[in-house]
């Protein structure tokens, strides 16, 4: 039996996928701040607020990481002509991982505060981000093979975006490996790739813009 994806008359535009994804990203960053609980002792409020620094750190890091994922999600889907069922499924799994990040952030902050289980917390936190990065690579590879990308992007732009996505696996993976032995160093490595991934990718706007 012919599936919907094999029917040339059915073309799914990416608009609804992007809108749904944006909503999940927005909810995820909102949940991050809800994980920060006010101190119970208001007689020593300044001290209590200062003691929450691990939660502030986790919030800032994860908010910027989710923002970076959101930026690169747009880099990917802004050049998609249409989507198929596999893209819809893979993107749903990606969003499921993003929605898990507030828990990983809370776990990391609590481990820093308690000074216990920090290695495990860093590995769980890094593994959440690494899984998201892996799904980016899987989705991008499928978009290329299935011919779902805008032809105007060009082969150079496709390769450049693919390299950026692949590098994240190595970078985050290094942070996880180091974090399993030196937790704070692992967090620093993971955080270190944030600035680079906010930078534009050469060729992401297509061959004409790259040539200009």
Describe the structure.
- The chain is mostly helical.
- The chain contains nine helices and no strands.
- α4 runs antiparallel to α5, α5 runs antiparallel to α6 and α5 packs parallel to α7.
- It is elongated, with a radius of gyration of 20 Å.
- It starts with 14 loop residues before the first helix and ends with a helix.
Task: Reconstruct the topology from this structure.
Layout: H1 15-34, H2 45-50, H3 53-77, H4 85-114, H5 118-145, H6 154-179, H7 183-192, H8 194-198, H9 207-211
Helix pairs in contact: 1-3, 1-4, 3-4, 4-5, 5-6, 5-7, 6-7
Estimate the helix proportion, in percent: over 70%
What portion of the residues fall into strands of 2 or more residues? under 5%
Radius of gyration: 20 Å
Largest sheet: none
Count of extended strands: 0
Number of helices: 9
Report how far apart the termini are: 48 Å
Report a brief summary of the structure.
By secondary structure, the chain is an all-alpha fold. It has helices spanning 15-34, 45-50, 53-77, 85-114, 118-145, 154-179, 183-192, 194-198, 207-211.
Keywords for this entry:
disordered C terminus; 9 helices; 212 residues; mainly alpha
């Amino acid at each position: 039996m012919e599936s919907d994806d094999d029917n040339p008359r059915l073309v799914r535009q990416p608009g609804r996928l992007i809108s749904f994804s944006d909503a999940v990203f927005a909810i995820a960053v909102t949940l991050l701040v809800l994980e920060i609980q006010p101190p119970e002792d208001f007689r020593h409020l300044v001290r209590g607020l200062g003691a929450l620094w691990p939660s502030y750190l986790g919030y800032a890091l994860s908010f910027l990481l989710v923002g970076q994922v959101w930026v690169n999600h747009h880099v990917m889907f802004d050049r998609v002509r249409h989507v198929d069922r596999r893209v819809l499924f893979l993107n749903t799994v990606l969003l499921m991982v993003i929605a898990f990040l507030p828990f990983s952030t809370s776990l990391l902050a609590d481990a820093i505060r308690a000074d216990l289980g920090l290695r495990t917390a860093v590995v769980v936190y890094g593994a959440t981000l690494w899984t998201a990065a892996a799904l980016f690579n899987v989705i991008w590879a499928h978009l290329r093979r299935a011919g779902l990308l805008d032809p105007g992007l060009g082969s150079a732009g496709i390769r450049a975006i693919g390299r950026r996505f692949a590098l994240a696996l190595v970078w985050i993976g290094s942070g996880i490996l180091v974090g399993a032995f030196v937790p704070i160093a692992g967090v620093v490595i993971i955080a270190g790739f944030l600035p680079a991934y906010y930078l534009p990718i050469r060729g992401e706007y297509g061959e004409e813009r790259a040539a200009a």
